[in-house]
Design goal:
alpha+beta, Beta-Lactamase, Helix Hairpins, Heat Shock Protein 90, 5-stranded mixed β-sheet, about 45% helix
Length: about 400
């Protein structure tokens, strides 16, 4: 099996990276030294090893040597000179109590080459593939077949194989996770670049539309210019959302500028006025009562309100009003948007604040499904929360921001 004597098959060659990884994988199993000790003590064998065996390589992965056998971890034998090579082909364990008395191996060249009389070796497999062997030798005969040695070696071989299989699964999972992270980062970088590059041509279209509106046009042409302006406005909003998504993912979160907002009621009313103008057929009711300034990012809070009201207009009942409530006291600022209509299923609620959720759940509706995600990130950046409560009659989104956190 192996040889302590120079010239009897031992050699040191460069090990391929794959085999080096296998040797290292066995080496990090904490229990291996103890397993080999048990193998030696329970059988009386003087040398035990875990070997990686392939068609052309035999490499020691772990060794216990009590007889100065001379083979260390990483030591390599000519695989054709080992019985382990035959075990790799047959897949069966080999047990020899005493070579001269064994009918199958008394004339075998390997025992004479390596100078052993007793031998035991069992295959190690993981994921249904042969890996190598757990083997032991001794220059004296030993009673192996009539002892617990076969059971112990089989059990230890299964244990080693299970560990190697677990290692492979872990490495595969880590590789898949790394691939997913790299793909996600590349996707978000692409989104950011695309969103940024779309701004310039869109600004040109907007400028051209504004010039056209100052030019005498017939009724049909004026209507087309208005449609173009509405499309530009909507596209600008989509680009802003995409850029916000990229900033939030790549930049570690939304950046905000906290400062006392002296005119927050006016800022919120302006947002609602724009939405009323865009949806003249809908009713938006507002109750805004803010006795003093609120510390936060006014532009971002306006964006949060715009997203929530737009969401209510799209998904709420057309017959019912959208109700906006804004309150502040010494402890917190609260902003809520409610709409009538059927409730949101619990399984959907759990995903509402994930990006692209609306697009995936309601593909027939316009938008990328980023509004609620961006709103939740704005709330998080302010040290606040965005929650939803929904039943069969009403759905209400509520943003709460502690004044102390702000």
């Amino acid at each position: 099996m192996c040889d302590a004597h120079t010239g009897n098959g031992e050699r040191q060659l460069s090990i391929t990276p794959a085999i080096a990884d296998d040797v290292a994988a066995v080496g990090v199993i904490d229990a291996i030294p103890k397993l080999l000790e048990v193998c030696c003590r329970s059988t009386g064998m003087g040398f035990a090893a875990v070997a990686r065996v392939t068609e052309d390589r035999w490499v020691a992965c772990a060794v216990r040597d009590e007889i100065a056998f001379g083979l260390d971890v990483g030591g390599e034998l000519k695989v054709q000179t080992t019985i382990c090579d035959e075990i790799r082909s047959s897949g069966q364990a080999v047990i020899i109590d005493d070579v001269p008395a064994d009918a199958d191996f008394c004339g075998h060249p390997t025992p004479a080459m390596y100078g052993f009389r007793s031998y035991i070796s069992v295959p190690i497999r993981h994921d249904g593939v042969f890996f190598g062997t757990l083997c032991a030798i001794d220059p004296h005969p030993r009673d192996l077949r009539g002892s617990t040695a076969p059971v112990i070696f089989e059990l230890f071989a299964e244990l080693i194989g299970a560990h190697l299989a677990a290692r492979n699964r872990l490495e595969a999972s880590q590789a898949a996770l790394l691939d997913q992270r790299e793909a996600a980062e590349l996707r978000e970088q692409f989104i950011a670049v695309m969103g940024h590059d779309l701004r310039n041509p869109l600004a040109s279209i907007d400028a051209a539309g504004r010039l056209l509106k100052k030019t005498p046009l017939n009724e049909r042409a004026a209507g087309l210019v208005d449609m173009m302006h509405e499309s530009v406005t909507r596209m600008a909003g989509l680009i802003d959302n995409v850029l916000d998504l990229a900033r939030g993912r790549l930049g570690g979160g939304f950046a905000i500028e906290r400062r006392p907002i002296l005119d927050l009621p006016r800022v919120l009313e302006q947002v609602l006025g724009e939405l009323r103008l865009a949806h003249p057929e809908r009713t938006i009711e507002a109750d805004i009562s803010l006795p003093g300034p609120v510390t936060g990012d006014g532009r971002r809070l306006a964006q949060l309100l715009s997203n929530l009201v737009a969401n209510a207009l799209v998904h709420g009942s057309p017959e019912g009003p959208v109700q906006v409530l804004a309150r502040a006291d010494g402890e917190a600022f609260e902003l809520s948007v409610a709409n009538a209509g059927p409730g949101i299923p619990p399984e959907t609620q759990a995903r509402l604040f994930q990006p692209f959720t609306r697009a995936s759940l309601r593909p027939h509706q316009q938008g990328l499904g980023l509004g609620l995600y961006i709103s939740s990130e704005i709330a998080r950046a302010h040290g606040g929360t965005l929650e939803v409560a929904s039943d069969d009659t009403e759905t209400c989104f509520t943003f709460r921001m502690p004044v102390a956190a702000a």
